[in-house]
Amino acid sequence: MKLFFASDLHGSLPATEKTIAAFLQSGAETLVLLGDVLNHGPRNPVPEGYNPPAVAERLNEYADRIIAVRGNCDSEVDQMLLSFPMMSDFAWVLLESGQRLFLTHGHLYNQNKLPPLRENDVVAHGHTHIPVAEKIESQFIFNPGSVTFPRNEFAASYGILDGTELSVMSFNGDVIKQTQIA
């Protein structure tokens, strides 16, 4: 199983185009969007190429390959533009290993406020715009960083789950963070 993760597109068409290109090149079956898809939010500047309708149109081309959760900047109005559901605060994915992958944006659940988890489950979230791929106590925390507004001097990034390897990658191919989940 290979999954591609992106978070915090914030309506930027150039960032979305980069994300789609990297997703297609990765060979992943599924694009996991961890929230804040169309709206830039009141705390962020207007991003380069801000065009939520065009971002929605591009993502809709891959609707049958997307799993998405709602971010704190996403709304029902955003959902009206998208052909895939994205209003759930979280989603569960069962991995081939039997581990569970908990998908959320990060404003409700994160490494400081975990949902009920079993040992070696994975929490994947965005929201902080800071890449993470590590085991904390008995669970794995994974944050692909941000495509549009990276923080803490990290490059714009995305995530890959390839079998048992979680990686955060920059768009120039550098591994930013990486861990094994088995």
Automatic annotation (TrEMBL):
Transmembrane segments: none annotated. Residues 1-162 form the Calcineurin-like phosphoesterase domain. InterPro entries: Calcineurin-like_PHP_lpxH (IPR024654), Metallo-depent_PP-like (IPR029052), MPP_YfcE (IPR041802), PdiEstase_YfcE_CS (IPR020935), Phosphodiesterase_MJ0936/Vps29 (IPR000979). Its EC number is 3.1.4.-. Its cofactor is a divalent metal cation. One of its GO terms (molecular function) is hydrolase activity. It is an enzyme of class 3 (hydrolase). Keywords: Hydrolase, Metal-binding. Belongs to the metallophosphoesterase superfamily. YfcE family. This is Phosphoesterase. It comes from Vibrio eleionomae.
